[in-house]
Structures are given as structure tokens and as C-alpha cells.
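Researcher: Please translate sequence to C-alpha cells.
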Amino acid sequence: MISKYSKDNMYRMDGYLGGHVLERPYTSDKVYGKVGEQEARDIDDNHQRYRDIRFDLLRSLLANKKAVFGSVVILLFILVAILAPYIAPYSYDAVDLPNMLKAPSVSHPLGTDELGRDIFSRIIYGARVSLKVSLFSVGIALIIGVVLGALAGYFGGVVDYIISGLTDIVWSFPVTLLAIAFVAALGPSLTNLILALALTGWTGFTRLVRGEFLAIREKEFIAAAKALGIPNRKILFRHMIPNSLAPIIVLATMELPKAIIVESSLSFLGLGAQPPTPSWGSIMSAGRSYILEAPWIFLFPGLVIAILVLAVNLFGDALRDTLDPKLKN
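Model: Translation complete:
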């Protein structure tokens, strides 16, 4: 264990224990004979404090009605997507021409489309597409954004100049328009749609992480870690990224509803999931030709999109309020 003592305030800084200055000072009236025993006690105190913080955050989320409502709805959609083959009463591509454009009934709770396919079953299977695209695209964008933002914020200089310039260029284009250009160039498919959304959504994470790193790298525990000779890789992954997780998680929850809406929009234009794979956007696109005689084809997928986006936004707002101490009370 590498330790360094500050004579000014008599605090001990442990480079490999997270780089934090411990809160308990070494008082002059009590001398510890074994430094190892005191280190063990400090580690236990830190772990207990971190556990208390996690429990406080969980209790705050459970006490927030928006968080509870949003999380319940999100979990419900995830379960529906996973259990789609067992929940859906019909196959999503089962054609039944004698029952085409049927209004909602007992046999077809949300009606049928122009080919007699059950809208309820297609919406259930469409949840798989929307959740898959949004989760994977935001996940890839998060990885790209965190890596580029960490490099720009930590090293600065030419690296920061290049990454910031590239971020500003991509940021200047509308996300939907840029995603349409990517899909048009790569070809319409679900995989290309995920790549398009990821390659257009990383800029927000990059700007956020860069700003956080510019602030964190000036902290005393980072200076102490550098003085102790800790490699840059360990400083980035052990000290700086963990201290930036809260805003990153909040931004990810804010990007999910945006990805759901963009995916539905591109599928509406025929650039997303290709037939017969159902997507909420493609169902609405097919229903626009029958909006007067069969409005349920267009109405119910749009209502489902609105409910899911609302739930994710409410959960994101509650998570932001919980993780940001400046917004408490």
C-alpha cells in the first residue's frame, strides 16, 4: 500500500483506495501503533459510507412517485418484449384477409390492419424492436462518447482540440437528418439503424464527460494520484470515470426516449425494420392510408410510444433529482 501524509492538515491520502482524502484526521493525542490496522478501519468506514449512500439513493427513488411509475412501466414493457411469443394471441405476420380492417373486438382487442393481422400482437412484437434499437444505440453511443470525452478532458491540448472540433461538427447537424443520411448510405435495416443512431448520438456524452473531467482533473486527489506515480489508465478508470457516473447515467436515461422517437420516425419512413418485422413506426406508416376508415391502426402504436417515452422521461427526471444534490429539497 502506497501512502502519503500531508503535514499541513494531517490527513492521509491513499492512492489505491480511490484517491480520496479521508475525512478522519490523525489527531495528535492519539497515536496509532500499526498503520495497517488503521488502514483497515478506514477502508471499512469508507465501504460502510458508500453502502449508506446507495441505500439513501434507493430510498429516495422509491419515495419519488415519478420514479416508481416510470420504473414500473419500463419493466412492464421489458417483460412484454421478452415474453412476446407467450403473450401475443396471434403471430405478428399471420395474414387473415377475411378479417382485414376489423374494429377492436373480443377476438382482436386492438383491431386488425389491411392484411387482417392482429394489431395487438404486432404492437407486442414491436416492443422488441423499439427497445432493442434504443438500448443498443444508446449503449454504443455512451461507450464512444465516454472514451472520447475522457481523452479530451484528461489530456487536453491537441487531443482536446481535435475531439472537440469533431464533436462540434457532428453536433451542428440535426440528429434525425444525419441518421437518415447514414441509413440511406448503408441501406435500410435494423442493424444499420442502430449504427446510425449510435454514430449520431455520442456527441452529448462526449461534451458531458469532457466537462466533468476538466473539473475533476483539478481536484486534490487527482494531483495526489499523479504524484504517487499511478498510471493514467488507472487514474481514468479508478478515479475519474467513477466520479462522473451520476451525470452519465442521467444523460443515458434522457437519450433513451429520443432514440425511441427517432427509431419510430425512421421506421415510419421505411428506413428501419423491414417487413414483415413489426415496428411501432412501420405500423403507423401502414395505418396512415386508412386513418379515416381504420384509425385504430394509427392510434394505438402512437399511444404506446407516448406512454413509454413519458415513463422513461419521468424516471430520468427523478433519477436526476436524486443524484444531483443541488436539486434536493
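Researcher: Any highlights?
Model: Confidence is low (pLDDT under 50) at residues 1-36, 38-48.
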